[in-house]
Amino acid sequence: MEKLTIEQFFFDMVLWFSFLATNCRFLTSNARCRVAYRKDNNYVPLFLFLLVFCTFAFIGGDYFNYQSLYKINTSQSAGASGQHVEAFYMWLVKVLPTNFFVWRFVVWGLASVLMVATYKRFEVPAKMASIVFLLVISVVFASFRNTLGFVALFFGSTFLFSQKGNKLLNYIVFAIFFVCSLFLHRSMFIFAALFCVALIPIGKKTYLLSIVLFPVLYKLIDNYAYQLLGSSLASEDAATHGVGYLESDFRVDTTLMGYVQLLIWRLPIYVILIYSIIKIYFKQQDVTYAVKTYLNATYFLVYISLLWRGQEVSAFLTNRFHDSAMFFCSVFLAMYIPTQPKPKLLKRCLWVLLIANLYNFAYQFYKHLL
Fold first, then answer.
1. CA-CA distance, 254 to 361, in Å (whole number)?
2. 6-23 vs 44-55: helix axis angle to the nearest 10?
3. Quick one: average pLDDT of 57-86?
4. How does DSSP classify residue 279?
5. Helices marked H in 199-315 — which ranges?
6. Shortest CA distance to 82 belongs to which of 186, 97, 74, 107?
7. Contact, 268 vs 354, CB < 8 A?
8. H or E segment to which residue 148 belongs
9. Stated pTM of the model
10. Mind listing the pLDDT tens digit for each residue in 129-138?
11. How many CA atoms does the CB half-sphere of 365 hold within 13 Å?
């Protein structure tokens, strides 16, 4: 397997920081952030950044793993069956020119189109979407293969929430993208199901009940982990991989620096969730149904990730669910921040996330290049 080079590292760094510099006004300005979409709807810079950064995401955790898998699946020994990847991605391997960058360009190019289209259809100001995306999800977005499944679900949801056009047609389009998302990664049935649960209107009592029940559920989760992920609700292939996650020997680094990394990545997300839930559900802030749905989905996934924290089964799952929650959070936060007059707390959380990204980049440099 190839390793990260210093040229690849600095290519990604220059690209990431250049995009940050063009969108950092929200972090440094004390102005009100209620910006009309019609005054800030140029998504071309975000799309171009996504296209280039995701195609050449050398610092992404799975870039070189996917490169190795691509070489295996394009070799004669792999035959027609393929390894580790879903049928759609194998089909692309067969029909596209044999070039890993071309394959990434198409897969993440489609994801980029759908992500930008999701923000546009939700009428999120472009620079707001850009800074939230960059700090919350950019590296994970460029790393996960199920990115395409998430954004297909998100784009389809814009039709579900739309007040324009024919309602029946909107529901049909949503159903099409919902079903398509299920075939874009083995795990998508879990996230699609949780999204459906998030659509159910809930109130502050539900959130309070979830907190009260957490200790009970935490005790039960270890006993029923195999039944949960080996459930017949999933396909046999997905269930097999779910059990594989449980049996993985992955463990989070429990050194002091490992705890620091967890703290600066996750604490701001927890603060954002608490702040938003209090404002929306306890203080009755008026927000759209879409905002509530994406907040609920983010909370559910973070809640589940905490249920796996410290369990005897694989620690892989707590990180997987938390990273997946960030996809929903990147949409929720981009829609929610513009509803706030002067969200100082949210700005401070984004500053901490900026520090978390810098810490991650420094760790990548230390791990691979020193």
1. 19
2. 170
3. 74
4. I
5. 204-223, 225-229, 236-247, 256-277, 289-308
6. 74
7. no
8. helix 147-160
9. 0.89
10. 999 999 999 9
11. 13
